[in-house]
Amino acid sequence: MLVDGKFYTIFSLLFGVGFALILSRHPVSLFVRRMAILTVIGACHLMFIWSGDILLLYAIGGLLLPLCLRLNDKQLLMLAACLILIPVGLDALTEYAGFDFAGPFYNLWWTEASRQGITEENFATWLRDADSYPQMFAFLLQGACERIWEFVSGHRLPKVVGLFIIGYLIGKHQLYAKLDEYHSLLRRLCWYALSWGLPASALYAWSATEGHPWGLTIHSLLYTVSVIPLAFGYIALFCLLYMRCPTNKVFSWLAAPGRMALSNYLSQSLIGVLLFYGLGFGLGCSMGLIYIELTALVVFVVQIVVSGWWLQWFNFGPLEWIWRMLTYGSYFKICKK
């Protein structure tokens, strides 16, 4: 209710802000090259480490952003709204007209799973029991097909690109640097977004746990009108807290892992392999949800500490450094001294 979809929404907005920052200083060709490199990173992550990768989707969506640059702000906002609402229309076509957009990808997924010997019976425990990388890779092969099916069935691409565009407009007008000017607006946004988003998210969570009792279209609409408003409420609340206590050390602590987002994201996958897969400690399927959440919290706290220490000595995170050099085609000094 409080988390599902909200933080990928926030990250998508931040991605769009980054797009605007890059374009303010560099040609579009550099951004395209940056996204092409991210596509390779995401594909490798998906195929060789974790089937839940999001980088590939973001890279593909990012490659579409330059197509929108000729539009004015009003047209961009209208396009963003249409893209965010497209999934509702597609789900309506599925529910009422029988269009099965994701069916071929579902069949591809289970065809590959069967080829690897993965069934509904051993699906949940395969990675826990896998004690060699070839066994893990067999799961990742079908997992890549599953991930594509998830993207198509969830209509992720239009939603993500729509949020990218909103983030781009925020970055284009540097609204993040003018918080004091929008203090009253942020307060109203926070109040209205949380007042609407929290009960709407509760209703969406109920619909999800009860198997969509009002149908797929209404469930999809509930997602749209709950997740995005609540995410904006979180953003407004965070901005207000920052304006109230700008020197609070919590913000500097959180800034460090943010500067190393790619390194931390991929390292989380490796930590997950170590903890939950048979290649490591094999804790998958043996931990309750509370313990998993606590584990995630501990990992993030450790990453905050490590990121802060790393950036005392280095200018970039390790993967950010490599990504930056590949993007610009030149060497950057990583050590501060």
Major sheet attributes: none
Given as residue ranges, the uncertain stretches (5+ residues, pLDDT < 50) are none
Rg, alpha carbons: 21 Å
- Please trace the helix and strand order, writing H or E for each element: HHHHHHHHHHHHHH
Instruction: Give the N-to-C terminal Cα separation.
Output: 46 Å
Question: On the 0-100 scale, what is the average pLDDT?
Answer: 94
Task: Return the domain count.
Answer: 2
Total number of β-strand segments? 0
Give the % helix: over 70%
Choose one word for the global shape. Answer: globular
**Strand content of the residues, in percent?**
under 5%
Number of discrete helical segments: 14
Structural class: mainly alpha
Please render the helix and strand layout as text.
Layout: H1 6-23, H2 28-48, H3 55-64, H4 73-97, H5 103-115, H6 126-129, H7 133-153, H8 156-172, H9 183-209, H10 216-244, H11 249-259, H12 261-276, H13 289-313, H14 318-328
